[in-house]
Amino acid sequence: MLTRIDHIGIACHDLDATVEFYRRTYGFTEVHIEVNEEQGVREAMLKVNDAGDGGTTSIQLLEPIRDDSPIAKFLARSGEGVHHIAFGTDGDVQEEADGIAGQGVRVLYDSPRRGSMGSRITFLHPKDCHGVLTELVQAAEAGERVSEG
Ligand code: MC0
After folding, report:
1. Domain VOC: where (predicted)?
2. 116 in ligand 1 pocket by Cβ < 6 Å?
3. Distances (CA, A) of 46 to 38, 105, 108, 109, 111
């Protein structure tokens, strides 16, 4: 089951300046920053709240580190703004994806890839989701979670 909004992904040009905006304006204090080479991004997760399923809900800020990053392409076309939403599951993300694929929605990865803080992630094609790029997330087990950056 999908049990939480895991995060909302926002594309930005300057990660540090955008993190500072979110800290100053909204008072978020728990910030984790990491680079995901495979996805071509430097990202910040700003925790908004704990979710009832043991996971968390965050704002994710995404800055491209390469011109061929999906985020670079998005910024060039649309400018800064909401890039995707991510639903979290307390179960197996591949099982969630298989169930959704069975309804005719394109799943972008054959098997889950590495997401923020050691999570397992996959994406659903925005054209099959009413224009919304949608991510599915299985958080890392507590002991495997990457520590705060
Ligand atoms: C593209 N489209 C979008 C969109 N990106 N629609 C809504 N939201 C978005 N973010 C639309 C375009 O406007 C276009 O529509 C059509 O989809 C094809 O776009 P394209 O860019 O020409 O095509 P692709 O295939 O090059 O790229 C789109 C696709 C790609 C979604 C498949 O961006 C992708 O594989 N994304 C998944 C990975 C990702 O986004 N990684 C970055 C976040 P028209 O009408 O013009 O045809 S990494 C992350 O988030 C990780 C680290 C984490 O959470 O832990």
Report:
1. 4-139
2. yes
3. 21, 29, 26, 26, 27
